[in-house]
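**Paired protein data**
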Amino acid sequence: MNINHRVHNSINAINQAVKLLSREGFIIIGFYHDSQSKPTVEIDYDPKCNTYITIGQAIYYRHEGYYRFGQFELGGCRIIWKERNIRRL
């Protein structure tokens, strides 16, 4: 598969993920893509993220200062968010 085809597929995956996330009420902050990794969509923190963590559909992958970062997969895209970790206050 050539690079143009991979980029085209990634753009389609991002488009579908944004549509699904928007229907769920998430606010989209941005997206990232390079030819070496999964397309990534960044969302604003929403309490639904806690539900995804609780049921095992999402994980926290980084803790930095007063913030923690979560992620889950949707339609071949990595969905990420940042939230303030009040336990560290």
Summary: Residues 3-88 form one domain.
